[in-house]
Amino acid sequence: MENEVSLLEESDVRFVIDSKGNKKEVIISYDKFMELMQIIEGHVFLHSPEILRQIKQSEDDIKSGRYVEFDADQVDEMLDWLHSGEQYEK
């Protein structure tokens, strides 16, 4: 694969080899393991059916004009409104 990005370099891993020379286990550092777990969890999160449904709903809302525009200085006010569950009135 031409555009493939490697998450592990040869220096990141150690192999446990059996008496026949077969690779049986891989040892990586804890930091590298945690980095890989974050990547995997992010991938799983972004591909979960519920997240994909919410993204689709958001796209539909935007296309239908069901969104509110506000300035950066209104963020706290808008978050309060969002958590209140009340209908937004401009």
Total helices: the number is 3
Tell me the domain tally.
1
- How would you write the strand order of the largest sheet? 1-2
Q: What oligomeric state do the depicted chains represent? A: single chain
The sequence of SSEs as H and E is EEHHH
Described by the principal axes of the CA atoms, the overall outline is elongated
End-to-end separation in angstroms reads: 52 Å
State the helicity in percent bands. 40-55%
Q: Tell me the total number of β-strands.
A: 2
What's the Cα radius of gyration? 23 Å
Q: Which spans of ≥5 residues are poorly predicted at pLDDT below 50?
A: none
Overall average pLDDT: 85
> Helix/strand/pairing class, anyone?
alpha+beta
Biggest sheet details: 2 strands, antiparallel
Structure in a nutshell:
This protein has helices spanning 30-46, 49-63, 75-84, and strands at 13-17, 23-28.
Describe this structure in words.
The protein is an alpha+beta fold and 90 residues long. It has three helices and two strands. The radius of gyration is 23 Å and the shape is elongated. The chain has helices spanning 30-46, 49-63, 75-84; strands at residues 13-17, 23-28. 0% of the residues are buried.
Write the layout of secondary structure elements.
Elements: E1 13-17, E2 23-28, H1 30-46, H2 49-63, H3 75-84
Give a quick set of tags describing it.
90 residues, two-stranded antiparallel ribbon, alpha+beta, 12% strand, elongated
